Amino acid sequence: MSQTPSVAAPLFLDTSALLRAYLVKDPFFAVVQRAILDAPSVVVSGLAHPEFTAALMQRQHRDHSGRLSAAQVTRLLADFQRDWETFEVVSVDDGALQDASALVIRRAALGLRAMDAVHLVGAQVASLAFDGIEFLTFDDRQRQAAEAEGVPLYAPPVVEP
């Protein structure tokens, strides 16, 4: 179930959210940037590093609507590497992978992908260390699985007019 964001809640980003923090033309860039700025800490799965890198490489080398030049990719990777040093990183070990497999089975009706399950398990692990952590993803199946697993989801604050 979605929860109202707590004041200064730690934030767990999956790769779909992390990528949007760097792509200024993405319609959700500002939402993710605000969430990161408001969070006392940003937590990610170790899986996010190669996934983020692969996503940028695809935007450079494939016919993609958000195509990036080599120079843009180089700059974004440098920015990402600099920021990576500030993130809390949840390790992807054998236990996490087995937990992700169990999660895929438990939520089979959702069609949860393996990598999404690894991120969600990372968020569950992080919730033990970071009180009040909220999970930010733009993947519908992953959001549904998080809700079913009781993982608090980030909801952008509502701004009163």
How is this fold's topology laid out?
Elements: E1 11-13, H1 15-20, H2 29-38, E2 42-45, H3 48-61, H4 70-84, E3 88-90, H5 94-106, H6 114-129, E4 134-136, H7 140-149
Helix pairs in contact: 3-4, 5-6
Radius of gyration: 16 Å
SSE order: EHHEHHEHHEH
- Structure class: alpha/beta
Strand content: 5-15%
**Poorly predicted spans:** 1-6
Largest sheet: 4 strands, parallel
Number of helices: 7
Strand order of the largest sheet: 3-2-1-4
Any overview of this molecule?
The chain has helices at 15-20, 29-38, 48-61, 70-84, 94-106, 114-129, 140-149, and strands at residues 11-13, 42-45, 88-90, 134-136. Strands 3-2-1-4 form a four-stranded parallel beta sheet, with helices on both faces. The protein is globular and about 40 Å long. It is built from seven helices and four strands.
List keywords for this structure.
52% helix, 7 helices, alpha/beta, disordered N terminus, 161 residues, single chain, four-stranded parallel β-sheet
Sum this structure up briefly.
The chain is an alpha/beta fold and 161 residues long. The chain has helices spanning 15-20, 29-38, 48-61, 70-84, 94-106, 114-129, 140-149, and strands spanning 11-13, 42-45, 88-90, 134-136.
